[in-house]
């Protein structure tokens, strides 16, 4: 009985933090400096100006980006300063020819030629220099990552065979039944949410009834209505980092807190594991849509998500339902943000999840699964090798950038 009371008390503490976050008002930021060319951020010996931030914000608006665009613009520009400095140090800066080719490719996504695309951007308030810098920085960073980690990222035929063996024999023929508790990160709970969840997880470990009760009362995921149960799912549909945990856990065990892309933390309880007669094929890409809806998981935002979902039969219908109001992405499973990957794992084609949020919970990120692209092992070695290499490069690039940021001197508001 004492164990249940402890768990309930910790859960009440968590939900209080969530409620406080939902009630908090977003205060307007101070006015930007009058001089657009004044220094907004210093990054070692480089600077980011107010004008560059304004331009990047406008660029992201034209591209239908969602979230706190100012924070996103500053973070992107700071990263690009560090990436360009590293490219200059290693001699991997994009050549003029590569930039022009990159611009042709970028404009081609909008079915436009490069000059036509630049004119279109300029009519929207985005200068040609802003677009060229964006393309050039992306190419330079790709060159840098390839130069540093190209050799280390290559996979051998034996590694590909082992990956396929793991996918089709050890994991592909297995399904797991999970229960989940998902708690969004808010400014009020971010300091101690992970540690509180860790203690709650220890209290709930081994007790399925208590876990389901906590999920019904406190989880932010729609699965709370079913005691947190997600249904039987092939283990290959889960994010790569979680597969090994569920293969080694005992039934009733609870994971340590799992970060979902920094936006939420989750506890998962293993409820069952079973073999299936026919192993599923390897999932090489997942095609999905994200829709940013202001308001977080408020009734109004959830109602708008339901309206959109009702109005569509397939992902292609969204072009008529909310033209320009969504982002469609095709990515390897390992390259998908963890919170989105967890949401997708519970969906069938054209189903929608409303458990993901952004911007401290103020934006609901509705996620719609369009398709899972699969490749049978036979004849698919080259494709699997490319995916594995791409995933490794993505991980190397993320760690590389973290190291650069940690070693840099970044000063905000230095005019």
Features:
alpha+beta, Chitinase A, domain 3, 415 residues, 5-stranded antiparallel sheet, single chain, Triger factor/SurA peptide-binding fold, 12 strands, 49% helix
CATH class of the largest domain: Mainly Alpha
Form type: globular
Along the chain, the helix and strand elements come as HEEHHHHHHEHHEHEEEHHEHEEEHE
Percentage of residues in DSSP E strands:
15-25%
Low-confidence stretches: 15-33, 165-172
The multimeric state of the shown protein is: single chain
Tally of distinct domains? 3
Mean pLDDT: 82
Helix content: 40-55%
Q: Helix count, per DSSP?
A: 14
Radius of gyration: 23 Å
Given the helix and strand composition, which structural class is it? alpha+beta
At the third CATH level, what is the topology name of the largest domain? Answer: Triger factor/SurA peptide-binding fold
CATH superfamily of the largest domain: Porin chaperone SurA, peptide-binding domain
Major sheet size, sense and barrel closure:
5 strands, antiparallel
Overall strand count = 12
Distance between the termini: 60 Å
CATH architecture of the largest domain: Orthogonal Bundle
């Amino acid at each position: 009985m004492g164990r249940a009371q402890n768990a309930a008390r910790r859960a009440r503490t968590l939900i209080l933090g969530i409620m406080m976050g939902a009630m908090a008002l977003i205060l307007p930021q101070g006015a930007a400096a009058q001089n657009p060319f004044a220094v907004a951020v210093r990054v070692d010996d480089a600077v980011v100006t107010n004008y560059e931030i304004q331009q990047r914000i406008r660029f992201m608006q034209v591209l239908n980006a969602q979230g706190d665009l100012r924070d996103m613009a500053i973070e992107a520009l700071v990263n690009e300063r560090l990436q360009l400095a590293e490219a200059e140090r290693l001699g991997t800066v994009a050549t003029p020819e590569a930039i022009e080719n990159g611009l042709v490719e970028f404009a081609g996504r909008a079915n436009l030629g490069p000059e036509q695309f630049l004119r279109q951007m300029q009519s929207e308030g985005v200068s040609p220099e802003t677009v060229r810098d964006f393309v050039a920085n992306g190419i330079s960073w790709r060159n840098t990552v390839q130069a540093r980690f190209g050799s280390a990222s290559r996979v051998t035929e034996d590694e590909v065979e082992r990956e396929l063996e793991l996918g089709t024999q050890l994991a592909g023929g297995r399904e797991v039944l999970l229960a989940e508790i998902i708690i969004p990160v808010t400014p009020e709970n971010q300091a101690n949410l992970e540690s509180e969840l860790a203690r709650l997880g220890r209290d709930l470990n081994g007790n399925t009834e208590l876990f389901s009760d906590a999920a019904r009362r406190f989880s932010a995921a729609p699965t709370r209505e079913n005691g947190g149960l997600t249904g039987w799912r092939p283990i290959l549909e889960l994010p790569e980092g979680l597969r090994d945990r569920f293969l080694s856990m005992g039934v009733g065990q609870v994971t340590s807190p799992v970060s979902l892309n920094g936006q939420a933390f989750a506890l998962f309880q293993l409820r069952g594991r079973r073999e299936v007669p026919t192993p599923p094929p390897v999932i090489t890409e997942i095609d999905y849509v994200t829709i940013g809806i202001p308001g977080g998981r408020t009734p109004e935002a959830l109602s708008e998500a339901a309206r959109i979902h009702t109005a569509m039969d397939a992902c292609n219908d969204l072009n008529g339902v909310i033209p320009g109001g969504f982002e469609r992405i095709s990515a390897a499973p390992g390259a998908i943000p963890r919170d989105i990957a967890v949401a997708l794992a519970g969906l069938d084609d054209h189903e929608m999840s409303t458990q993901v949020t952004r911007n401290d919970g103020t934006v609901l990120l509705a996620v719609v699964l369009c398709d899972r692209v699969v490749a049978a092992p036979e004849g698919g070695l080259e494709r699997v090798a490319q995916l594995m290499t791409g995933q490794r490069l993505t991980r190397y690039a993320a760690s590389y950038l973290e190291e650069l940021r940690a070693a840099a001197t970044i000063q905000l508001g230095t005019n």
